[in-house]
Amino acid sequence: MIRVTIWNEFIEERLFDDVQKVYPDGIHKCLEAFLSLNKDMQVRCVTLDDPEQGLSDEILGQTDVLLWWGHHDHDAVTEENAERVKRYVLNGMGFIPLHSAHYCKPIKKLLGTSMCLRWKHGEREKLICVNPSHPIADGITEPIVLEQEEMYGEYFDIPKPDEIVFLGWFSNEEVFRSGCTFLRGWGKIFYFQPGHEEYPIYYHPQIQRIITNAVRWAAPVNRRTSDYDNEEA
Ligand code: ZN
Q1: Whether the Cβ atoms of residue 192 and residue 108 lie closer than 8 Å to each other
Q2: In CATH, what number does 2-113+180-218 get?
């Protein structure tokens, strides 16, 4: 059983009508709805408003894969909690930052670069698989067309990814490394660009398929049970 925790900041769905129309119960509930259909996954949601911001040792200690959606208030996540997420990833927990979570504290700590990019609302995206034998691409044989998505463009200031699985090509002629993997410590990370809050991206069956594949891929094979230190041989 893969224990999945979906962390959502859950601010814009409550602040803005156009976001609430798309995700009336919050983005996390949409992600939970399709992930929990999988018999090999046990899914729960936490939000910024939860005790310890939903990032306590108790929660993370029972999480195999953490999905993260945030945008409005990245800075509200405490340093202590961001460091805790980083530590769990280094010890083997899978981590899937979605869309604007490119700028969340834990991924910046884990990857070490600015994570800056270029953006523009309302472009059409063609999401193209450039790594068809990768487990995250399982079942994704044709390009996925998103009629409206927020364009993210290069240069995307990430360290060199271990693998690029998807490229985004946008109607304003920009391109983006939209699906990238990184190994950090014992943990597997998949950054996935689609998912702007004003468009119904997470209802798209193929987008759901990619995220589902990513959860299975990111699930730990082995976990380190204590923080790393030198050991006498
Ligand atoms: Zn966005």
Answers
A1: no
A2: 3.40.50.880
